[in-house]
Design brief:
With 325 residues, the chain is α+β, with helices and mostly antiparallel strands. It has nine helices and 15 strands. It has one domain. The strands form two sheets. The chain has a six-stranded mixed β-barrel.
């Protein structure tokens, strides 16, 4: 039976996973071809988690058992026993203001297709949404980024469709979840796409001129490059699961170490030197997969390997003795 699970990441810093669409000195981010929405490639997530497992088990074969041996000089790679898909957006924070009293309101926004795809992977009942904004905020007019949007209330079945699978991480359950429950807006896909194109987190990096260079005077600033990032407080989801070896499956110890890493703080994407990419991870299902190697079987395998090694050693010694005679 296929082992298929859902994991989540809550960004604690802006995330920059570089894309191929850089324009001049604008450092773009990876975007899905069919939606143009930003995402974190599964290869980036997998690489980060591999490094985390290696850091907590530096002298162990555990990282190779889970992720497979890395490509060697002969072009050979090991077989993995755990896999990770792309981390997609689910809820993105946006600067929002209520027009009823002009109060600033912190909200997360999402769209129909992202909620639908998450519901399919998480095996939640999906309810269709109308072609206008609805949310858990009080009904009324809101300014989201720079657009005025009329928001209506959610139906009970729609609230179920926008839920996350499983329980939140304990670090977020009291600090973030209550606000998230009451501050969400679901937009039509077209409106959400506009926000993802024009309202993401950006930062201009300037280079200060130290000497005179033509018309440029010392002390003047020149735009060096512009970062585009997925903002902090974004909620991602990603599919993952086990693909256990039939001959030498991993053990419960492998699973426990991986769970500790998946529920920890880890870094995704580039620009780690300036603090980008830190996330709090958690998973919906922590149960061990079926088919793990049992301690008894592991002991038998080790004993068998020891016996075979001893027999080979004895045979080698006998061969040497015969040759000497």
């Amino acid at each position: 039976m296929t082992d298929f699970r859902i994991g989540y990441m809550y960004s604690l810093a802006p995330i920059h996973c570089g894309g191929e669409g850089d324009l001049g000195n604008i450092l773009e981010i990876a975007r899905e071809a069919h939606t143009n929405f930003p995402y974190a490639p599964g290869s980036s997530v997998r690489g980060s988690l591999r490094d985390e497992v290696a850091s907590v088990q530096p002298k162990s074969q555990m990282v190779d058992d889970l992720f497979g041996k890395e490509l060697d000089s002969n072009g050979q790679m090991g077989v993995h026993q755990v896999w990770f898909g792309d981390a997609r957006l689910l809820w993105v924070p946006m600067r929002t203001m209520s027009m009823s009293g002009g109060k600033d309101v912190f909200t997360w926004v999402s769209c129909h297709s992202l909620i639908r795809d998450h519901a399919l992977l998480a095996q939640l009942n999906y309810e269709s949404f109308p072609d206008y904004a609805v949310g858990t905020v009080a009904s009324g007019t809101y300014t989201v980024a720079d657009a005025d949007i009329q928001v209506s209330g959610l139906l009970p079945q729609q609230r179920n469709a926008i839920a996350l699978s499983g329980n939140w991480h304990s670090n977020l359950a009291s600090a973030v979840q209550p606000t998230w429950n009451n501050k969400r807006i679901v937009l039509p896909d077209a409106d959400f796409e506009v926000l993802m194109e024009h309202s993401l987190w950006t930062q201009v990096r300037n280079k200060i001129q130290e000497t005179e260079n033509g018309a440029t005077q010392p002390g003047s600033a020149e735009v060096f490059w512009t970062d585009v990032c997925i903002p902090r407080d974004t909620i991602f989801y990603y599919p993952w699961g086990y693909s256990l070896s039939k001959t030498k499956p991993i053990t419960s110890r492998h699973h426990n170490v991986l769970m500790d890493v998946l529920k920890s703080l880890f870094q995704v994407g580039g620009q780690a030197n300036v603090g980008r990419g830190w996330v709090q991870g958690w998973v919906a299902d922590e149960t061990p997969p079926t088919g793990l190697e049992t301690p008894e079987h592991q002991a038998e395998t080790m004993a068998s390997d020891t016996t075979e090694s001893s027999e080979e050693s004895t045979a080698t010694e006998q061969t040497k003795a015969t040759v000497e005679v």
